[in-house]
Fold these 2 entries.
Entry 1:
Amino acid sequence: MKGTKNIDPNTPQLGILEWFRPGEHEQVKAAIEDFKKLGIKHLRTGISWADWYVEGTPEWYDWLFAELAPHVEILPCFLYTPPSIGEMPKTSAPPKDLKSYADFIDEMITRYGDYFEWVELWNEPNNKVEYDFTLDYSWNKFSTMIGMAAHWAQKRGKKTLLGGMSPIDPNWLQMMAEQKVLDYIDAVGIHGFPHVFDQQWKGWDINIKSVRDVMEKFGYDKEIWISEVGFSTWQDDEVKQYQEFKNVLNANADRIYWYSLKDLDPKNSTVGGFHLDEREYHFGLKKTDGTEKLLYKLLEKHGVEEIKEQNYIKKQYKISEREKYTLITGGAGFIGTNLASRFLSEGKRVMIYDSLFRDGVEENLQWLQKEYGDKLIIQIADINEERILQECVNNASEVFHLCAQVAVTSSVTNPVHDFNVNLKGTFNLLEAIRKSEHQPSLIFTSTNKVYGNLQDVKMIENETRFYPEDAIMKKHGINEKIPLDFHSPYGCSKGAADQYILDYSRTYGLKTAVFRMSCIYGPHQFGTEDQGWVAHFLISALENQPITIYGNGKQVRDILFVEDLIDAFMLASKNIDKLAGEAFNIGGGPENTVSLLEILDTIKEKAGKEMDVSFEDWRTGDQFYYVSNTNKFKEATGWEPKYTVQEGVENLVKWLCENRNIQLPENLNPPKKVAI
């Protein structure tokens, strides 16, 4: 993790709050790996008094402490009264014998004290509605219980944290001071959930000052810890989570525990009950399926210090732009960056709408911002943030919908995310356009996967490639008359979105066009083996990394250099009245076909590298052959590709070498300076 060196001494120590249920061994191991990636050295976790007497719990905590201790400084939070010894059969009730809480702390220190330096003391007091006590009496019992436990913990050589106030209440702290509880406390904890549970949020400065004022009044000089702080992304607002994280880093506190590492699994209940408040399920840096949210990615890449300086992360909740702009969803991606650059280089305004979900795209956004300045409008938002999406559409002159989950493999492992982005997100965009006053045109990037694996097309196989038995198809490629046959969740979500877009043109008169794309490649592409395979092969070759091919390598694609695709977009936009309601197959066409084996030879020539290649089984939905018949679009607009495979690959090699500080192969000339 970057940014862990030379940390500003005014930056509070950062920790994570994460609760583990008995038996969650794999979750703990996974969390430790995340702590390593993020550079987290402090962990606050709950130790349940109520669970201690359940069979197997002591053995669970034996394992948990030993597993965590080599990796993080553990702050155990001791809470929840066993119902059998409480004044009422609730874990939030105080014990009948207040000293029994101190006895439990003593037992924990004896058994696990070698694993921690601090103890957090908190056990929620009863309220007068449930237990028919006066509020003062309830808090008096609480202060007595905590005071005894804190006194004994200090006797046992431990430092003590007074459990956090939520909401922050200086009157409560004054009561603790008056009861002399703070005599045995080393740090005072506070909680804060700005704009989630704390709707009337006053800011960290005001809240922390109110706590310090109480301590100064009674002559105490204690550390202040923000022992629980977080922001729920239940409305898909990951930028706001990032912003609240930055805000708390500037708080005048000694330590911060961010809540939490991972969203709460929907099968579990919260303290308040089962799904009574959906906000409580979305506080994590990661989703329950392991998807990393924006804050996680930024922390992993930039670290605590540098995360404050990411000025390309921008969000507008109310669009105030007077000048119309081109809206590009997924605009920080490979194709979106090249498209935005074309418009911006012509002096037009562009709004990039992107969640920064894909790795590496933040580099594209920073590049665009540096190159084009105020002509670029940045909107970091999720495609399913409907209100913000509507605001952005309302002032757009035209829309290019490139936002997508792009990998077949990812769709198989996480079909819910694939559906939410590719289909639900597209539907939200269509509705936003339909509801807008001027209904801007929409150009959508679909995929050749809408045609399935083309199993009914008879193939011939030679030494390096497959090709169709049908001579006409071999000569011209696959046209739009091939029946749709969605394979894989990715094919289904993109195909359904494709059909929705065409139907919104028929039903509502929207000016929409669909590009069913083959393989696109070029600058600003951060290819992986799941998607963007030409760039992935080149990157692997240049960096001496092994390459895995799924299948026998004879599968054929027509590949299209991205500048040719951008030309097609510009023509489609210019001719949208004529093209509305139509789908077009777009790719390099029969003149630019390669098999995977053949492209490896080209890469070897252009990159000047030998490659370590291995083979694995075929993947779901893979096509032996797909070559676009682009005649329909050519006849409508006059478009045709300008770059050959050799020229395109050479240009991409040059860009990758420059971008990654790799020495240019001796057989290539330096790249020409072009606006891409």
Entry 2:
Amino acid sequence: MKRRIPLRKRLLVRLLIASALIAVCSVAATAWLAVATTTRALKEEQGQDLAADTNILSRLSGYAATHPDWKGVEKTVRALAAKTGRRIALTTADRSLVADSARVRTPLPPRPAATIDPLHTDTYTESGAQLSGIDPRAVGPYRLTARERERLVAVAGRQRQCFDRQGIQVTVDLTPSGRPVLTNPDGTDASGYVAEECGYSPLSAPTATERKALDALTRQTRACLVREGLEPGAPLYLAFDPTAKHPLGRFAIAKYVKANDKEALATAQRCVDSAHRAQLAPYVSPVAELFLGIGDRTAPRFDMSPANKAKVVGAAGLVLAVTVAVTAVVATRLVRPLRALTAAAQQPPELHVRVPVTTRDETGILAEAFNDLTERRARLEAQRKAMVSDIAHELRSPLTNIRGWLEVTRDGVVDPDPVLLDSLHDEALVLQRVIDDLQDLAAADAGTLRLHREPVRADDLLDQVTAAHRVAADAAGVTLRTEAGDACWLDADPVRMRQALGNLVSNALRHTPADGTVTLAARPDGDRVEFTVADTGTGIAPEDLPHVFERFWRAEKSRSRRTGGSGLGLPIVRHLVAAHGGRAEAASEPGRGAVFTLKLPRATPPQDG
């Protein structure tokens, strides 16, 4: 009987409730943020706008980096104030007014918005100052002369023309120091792509002006290193990067500290930065405080009107309704494949119903897993039916023979002579072998197969199995031999191991013609011991090889059950080896015999005494 799911527990209802709650919360939060954003937008008339403030700070920092004082900054301040609509004021550190866009005697805002110091700037003022903290527009003594600039620009122009002939599009840009650089369309350095036809570029070498400034910086840095106790025993090297926005790029110091001495390297880098700031100080403006604001005016108050409140509530209700409708549609699509899975699972097992996979999400994965489970169940059912049929066939033949001989003996047709009794005994042994094999497989499937482990030598196992099958091999005219390498030990059940190897040998003897050879071998293989049973028989066809360890499987379907075995020997071998933590493998070439390999964990030899 189909069970009815309560309404409150249905996935669709729960998803709708959860989605509605989420929508209510999100809409409420959105409405609150909208109101707060509107109020804050009005209040920002009294304060700073981040984008405009950043632009103002960058422009004034650039002015300070390129002028030795603040004379003449009034014009720049008033132009920025007119463009941004902001009040801009500059003062010294002691609040002495330098420039102001407001009327005279207009009070300053209570706090400065920023400090303008091109030698100690932050990462937001100008790109290129992230590492040293120095505005890259502060070049000071590194600024090229007009003649040097003209010479390098001419060289850069020739390089660009050579690039054009090679099919490489580059542009010539000027750094703050006046040095030209070649850049790709994406803004990256193009100097690394100079073709041989273009020759060596002198753009990478410092000019006389830059070399003079570098020498002065080297002297000041060395003096600092001496004070810090890091007097270099070798020449001091300062890297020159002609493609960087800053004339020096990032400094690199070498050959005066031990490798991986991070503390010494940090001290040396501080010396370079300090010397560089001291070198640039005469060329930049003094530190100034930047004030931004609206002077002494009072910020307007803002209260939301009823009409605006109604708009917010209406928008929230509309968003909520749309969210619920969309959620219902999505939930219905999500539940549909689950209903199909439920309907398929409720069908009779013998139908092996499958469901269509229509999505690639979690539901689709679940449908694929359900179909895989159905296919495995169908295969297991087919194997079960085949196994029942095979077991019945295995037991019927010897039982029919025993019953027939007993009936004719009872009727007096045949005398119970020793030959008849031997035949009946053989049939009973066949039954016993099949039953024992089935019992071993049942124990292995149930996980109750008992092993009595003890240290066992591999070569001893080979000798025992060979001795047990010597008579059968001689009777079949097959040579049975062993090959043992270095002494290997196993922690195994010797009885079960002899059973596994014996099954392989028996199987090999049955499939090896007279004058053939069956070889047993054992050899170490890393942390494992490898047993092989190889024969010179007819071999196994490639299409049959994957099935050799299946129950009741036989390559020759016409072979009699007595001569062909019960079809349970190799599955038992596989289970016995797996119980010992190993694995069984088979390899063969038709007409050249077969090789069965058992790989088991290797054990430490026992200590004597």
